[in-house]
Each structure stands twice: as C-alpha cells, then as structure tokens.
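Hey,

The postdoc asked me to send both predictions to you directly instead of through the lab channel. I've kept everything plain text so nothing gets mangled by the mail client. Protein one:
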Amino acid sequence: MSGLVIIDNGGGNVASVRYALARLGVTAVLSADPAIVRAASRVILPGVGAAGDAMRRLSAAGLDRLIPTLTQPVLGICLGMQLLFESSGEGDTRCLGILRGRAERFPERTGLPVPHMGWNRLEPTRGSPLLAGIAPGEYAYFVHSYALPPSEDSVALCDYGAPFTAIASRGNFHGAQCHPERSAATGARLLANFLALDA
C-alpha cells in the first residue's frame, strides 16, 4: 500500500497542498491512476475551478466510479469537497454522491461580494477528529462562489450572509470548504488531524 495520494485533477492548489504536507513531514504522490489511488493509505481530492470540468476529468480517468468505493480516509478540499456531494448548481453538475446536498452559488447581497474570499470563523456543530485542537471561532481561509447548506454531514459551519458547511464528514469521507493549506496554524492542524485518522 502506498502512502498519501493527491488526486491529479487539474486543480491549481496542488502545489500549495503538497507544500503544506511537506511542512508536516509528509511526501504526497500526485496521480490520477485508479490503481495508485486505490492502494493509497489516504487520499486528498483538491480542486479549483468549475465543477463540471472537474467531474469530466474524474470521469475520463475512471475516478468518478472509484472514489465512492474507497475505504481509506479521503479529504476533499474546496471544490474537491463540493464534488463529494450529490450535485452542484454550477452547470447543474452531477457529482460523486457520497455526501448529501447540493452546492449553490452565494446569492448577491449588498456588501458581500461573490466569491467569498478571505478569512472566516469556523463554528463546530458536533465533535469530529478533524477538529481536534481547533477551538470554536478559529479562522480559516476561503475562496469560493458555491457552497453547501448545513446538513447532517456538517461538522463545522461558517457564516457569509447565511450559514454554510465549512467542514463535513461521513464515515471515511471528509471535506474542507476552506483551504487548509492557506489557513496558517488552523489549517496545519486540520491536515495533521486528517493524517492521524485511522486508515
């Protein structure tokens, strides 16, 4: 079994995710090979860009069928988290369907530009090993135009005119709408907590 694999899905945040993991002493393999992903001890699904494009790349590699069957810890980051859910309003895209919910674009509100870009507070909704050592109200860094509403899979929310899911978990699948690789000590702790999950 190989170690940590980052799925190569064309996301522009791959280099910064690898660098953040290197600061934690972990070297990650970048691959879109289903056999390599299947054999990994942990998997990260990053993502920046459009949901439809990302799902087409996963489908072309056969990863849209593989990812829902994985039994090791999986972490989706930003768009990668949204892809774990059922669908996205961005291009009316069918996603992986592992977590329940549909990502929708933030409504235009006075004084709240879209995309939501910058630091925002994490507010836990229930206990999760991903949040170990992260206090309520700690800040994480976000860049996104689409978000998931609160659901039974939410373990932390943020507020941007209305609450949205910042961190989600179901079984071995986890998601961070924030960018932990850009979230200073809070993000480093979240990544470290993911690496410490039982494989």
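Protein two:
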Amino acid sequence: MTEQVAEIGIFGGSGFYSFLDDVRELIVETPYGPPSESISVGKLGGRKVAFLPRHGSKHQHPPHNLNYRANIYAMKELGVTQIIGPCASGSLQVDVKPGNFVLCDQFIDRTRGRDDTFYNGPISTHISTAEPYCAEMRAIAARVGENLGLDIHKTGTVVVVQGPRFSTKAESRWFSSHGWEVINMTQYPECVLARELEICYLNISLITDWDVGLEDHPAIKAVTLDEVVKTFNDNNAKLRDFLFKLIPELPTSRNCACSKALDGARFTV
C-alpha cells in the first residue's frame, strides 16, 4: 500500500475499535497467511490507528498457535511505525500486584517452534535485541501512566511461556527466583518481529493475578477466578483510558534504535 493508512497499531482484546472515530474494516493479505482478524482502522486524538484483536474476535487463536508474522506484517503494510501491545499477564513478584501495569523492557523466551523471523535467507540478517522494546515509547507511557495515577512499573522482565498450559509451581518459583516480574504467552516473538521490520513496540502488561509459584507466600491470599475476572475487567477500563491519553502523546517522528534496527544487521558478500 502506498498510502499510510495508520501510524499506530494496537494488539489487544476485541471491542477497543468501538472507541475509534470513522472506523472501517480492512482485510490485509500477507505472504505469511491471514492475520488473526480483519483490521479496524480509524482515528483517535487526531492520530491514525489500526486495531487488531490478537486472538481474533472470538478468541479463537490460542497463544501457541498465533500467526505472529502475519499480524506484524499486516501492520507494516498499513504503514504502522509504532505498535502498542497490551497483554493480560501474571505476576512473579509479591510487589507486582493484581491491578498493576508493567512496562516491560526485557523478555525471557521459553517458547518453542514458533515462526519467529522474517529473515530465513538468502541474506543473513541478525538484528540486535539487547533492548527489545522501544525506550522512547516506554518513557512516554510511564509519564502518562503516572499522571493518570496508575500503579505502574516503569520496567520489568516478562517470561514468555509456550502455552496453552500454565506453569507448574516449580517452573513459576524458578522464574521468580531470578527476579523476573511478569509471565505471559504472547510477547515472543511479537516484539522481535516488529523490531525486524523497524517498527517501535511498547508492551503494557496488565497484571490479573499472582502466578502459581507465589500461592504459598504469607503475604498473598489465594486468588479466585471471580477476582481474576474482576481485575481483568477493571484493568481493561483503565487500559482504555491509558491508551486514549497515550496515543496523542506518541512522537510523529522517530530517532530511536528501533527505526534503525536493520543498519549493520545484514551480511553481504
């Protein structure tokens, strides 16, 4: 597409698009197959926004089976240069509480078998993922979140597990023992694929519960399903307000490392 249909992309649960202005639905074809759903494009705060429900409108695509490459490529085709990737997550630390938000700056990949690169040859391409998330977007999000009075952690490491099962207590305790804060099933390879296409990526982890390895901690009471659902719904309302304030604040030009991720990354003879 020659026209920049959207500047900012959002992956998230279905329904967010209902708050955009002048919404239209687009079906985007990619070399990697279809994305999770048609993409809703519209305007918010004067910015062109593309919204894609990561798991599909009926949550029909489980985390281990998502077509991550198609989702990211479709955003690139629309002209998106910045992606916001909210995700419901568990906490691995006592001080990261249900209802908190974590702006992750690092990840640990514990997945397997996922298609996690656009570059399978013939030119070898090795991007740096030392800092996998956009520092510029994260700094802006931290400021906006604090101004809204959100309980927000400015940095954090997310452990990405394969799914669809949840962790055992032993696995969860192992993750916690390293000081990692968040556990989730979708951050890898989503953020890496965005970097491969020089798209900025911001993670916003919505903490819905403490992970199973913390259940026996004296400071934590057992979490019920009703509480998880309530926290998730409350967080979604906060997330919506957060995004409405954040999107107009994002820069219209970029000087971050993400925009130059392919510089020096390719080996040519």
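Summary for protein two, as requested: Helices lie at 68-77, 135-147, 169-177, 187-196, 225-246.

Thanks,
C.
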